[in-house]
Amino acid sequence: MTARTFDNIRNFSIVAHIDHGKSTLADRLIQTTGALSAREMTEQVLDNMDIERERGITIKAQTVRLEYKAQDGKTYILNLMDTPGHVDFAYEVSRSLAACEGSLLVVDASQGVEAQTLANVYQAIDANHEIVPVLNKIDLPAADPDRIKEQIEEVIGIDASDAVPISAKTGLNIEGVLEAIVQKLPPPKGDETAPLKALLVDSWYDAYLGVVVLVRIVDGVMKKGQTIKMMGTGASYSLDRVGVFSPKMQEMAQLGPGEVGFFTASIKEVADTRVGDTITDDRKPTAAALPGFKPVQPVVFCGLFPVDAAEFENLRAAMGRLRLNDASFSYEMETSAALGFGFRCGFLGLLHLEIIQERLEREFNLDLISTAPSVVYHLKLRDGSTIELHNPADMPDVMKIESIEEPWIRATILTPDEYLGSVLKLCQERRGIQIDLNYVGKRAMVVYDLPLNEVVFDFYDRLKSISKGYASFDYHISDYREGDLVKMSVLVNAEPVDALSMLVHRDRAEGRGRAMCEKLKELIPPHMFQIPVQAAIGGKIIARETIRALRKDVTAKCYGGDASRKRKLLDKQKEGKKRMRQFGKVDIPQEAFIAALKMDS
Ligand SMILES: Nc1nc2c(ncn2[C@@H]2O[C@H](COP(=O)(O)OP(=O)(O)OP(=O)(O)O)[C@@H](O)[C@H]2O)c(=O)[nH]1
């Protein structure tokens, strides 16, 4: 009963900055090893959700098993674990990495190292991975592989002398990547005679099969019919199917040490599986569980309400469906004085929020209003207790509050030198504290501590616009710090709109309040009466705008009696109203909620 190496297997991930060509390379590897025919290679196969494809980003980690006949004459099994590239999904990167021994570090040879290159490669180094640098896009005239090699060595501190130059787009030197995987990355180790020990890497809901669980076997074997036990939850299941993705699902007699594959076991909900859990044999359990992962914590919350109150139950059902496949998204019922019944939802970040909202609207045909995104605050109360505040509308009376803590992030930004001044100014304006400033070739690398509250709304958009798209950004939550935070309310026509209230730093409240009123003035269409728009802290008004009254009768000009034209106009007006919500006597359009918060103050 001793561990041995499984020389014919290599398990690896691809880490890269967004758009450096990870998915294109993954497709080439699948194509070159002949796992799919050219006809089956439609679009990028690993990005298999519609929204991922449209937005060109990878969200869910997927895996694929490839067979490769190497130059040494042997056939290898290569398990590629795809990882998401966007900061919101960093936790998915870490769990995919835990299932592999090595990583390909893909760097765009015309762009060089970016913020997410660093964040992702450091995660791979933390996971003890062997790393093979791959220089992609060498077909581009601007590619400068030698300079990028130096940069990788200088900035990341790993040997890049054997970096593999490729073009994933044209297919140049994909063979070189496959050989490097076989020659440079270590094979897995394990003991096939030991009790089963496997890592639960991921799980998702499949309409035909129920919950599908992705596993990496560490020791022992996993077979159809076996009764397994999840060590974290204590639940036992009998295995219905065991297999691999090649990349199509393919059943196998068993999975052994070092292998990556799936099982199904009549598990009803994804929530019954815990990512990072250890799976063992129910009758012959392993002694010690694998080190798990930290559970995912939503960091951004917002309310989602149906435009049409009658859609509430449909919204509830749709959320349940989405949650089946995305355990990182949370929701609970909420009532708002202004918006009625809806849900308070938790997300991993703003992109995650946008994706979920888009899926609810598109896949389930719902019209939704989302409220201001908010981070999670820790409130210390005078009675000695601490509460978590997910919704500014639930803020207790200020007299009861001892102090408020807010989440801070550590952000790494890489920017061409000419935009450095603007980037520093932006970070300073957002209450940032500079930690470090270095150079990576001609680009500056700044490290800042920032309150997440100042980042969730539009920091990333602003950063991209002031750097003409060249700056890159990555962050992780670092800690909670006390701040002088106050609740700012917004009143439209003298009525508070709870969905627009937010916590802001006292020093920024006035500027934010003024900008918010100006923005709402632009976004709320004139009514038949004058509408005051005000921002207030406690009972004190800190900003005010007025929307002037306007008499707008669209049918007035067609008194000639053309009924169909009149109908059309009315329909058009109704259409325009669809995404409005009435607050007292005032209609506020949906855009006002998000846009009012995306302000340059
Ligand atoms: N010229 C050139 N373009 C490439 C090459 N590889 C990828 N691209 C292009 O770069 C863009 C981004 O490629 P993707 O493979 O989607 O990038 P990614 O890193 O997977 O992005 P995420 O999935 O969002 O993390 C696409 O438009 C590709 O066509 C290459 O070798 N040369």
TrEMBL record:
Record keywords: Cell membrane, Elongation factor, GTP-binding, Hydrolase, Membrane, Nucleotide-binding, Protein biosynthesis
Matching SUPFAM superfamilies: EF-G C-terminal domain-like (SSF54980), P-loop containing nucleoside triphosphate hydrolases (SSF52540)
Q: Note whether RNA-binding occurs among the keywords.
A: no
Task: Name where it's found.
Answer: Cell membrane
According to the entry, every stretch annotated as the Tr-type G domain falls at: 7-189
Name the catalysed reactions.
GTP + H2O = GDP + phosphate + H(+)
One Pfam entry name: GTP_EFTU_D2
GO terms for MF: hydrolase activity; translation elongation factor activity
Principal place where this protein is found? membrane
Enzyme Commission (EC) number? 3.6.5.n1
Q: Does the keyword rRNA-binding apply?
A: no
> What residues does GTP bind to?
D19, H20, G21, K22, S23, T24, N136, K137, I138, D139
Q: Give the record's membrane topology.
A: Peripheral membrane protein
Name the InterPro entries on file.
EF-4, EFG_III/V, EFG_V-like, EFTu-like_2, G_TR_CS, LepA_C_sf, LepA_CTD, LepA_IV
Give the first-level EC class, as a single word.
hydrolase
Question: What family name appears in the similarity comment?
Answer: Belongs to the TRAFAC class translation factor GTPase superfamily. Classic translation factor GTPase family. LepA subfamily.
Which NCBIfam families did the record assign?
Answer: lepA, small_GTP
Q: What does this protein do?
A: Required for accurate and efficient protein synthesis under certain stress conditions. May act as a fidelity factor of the translation reaction, by catalyzing a one-codon backward translocation of tRNAs on improperly translocated ribosomes. Back-translocation proceeds from a post-translocation (POST) complex to a pre-translocation (PRE) complex, thus giving elongation factor G a second chance to translocate the tRNAs correctly. Binds to ribosomes in a GTP-dependent manner.
What's this protein's name?
Elongation factor 4
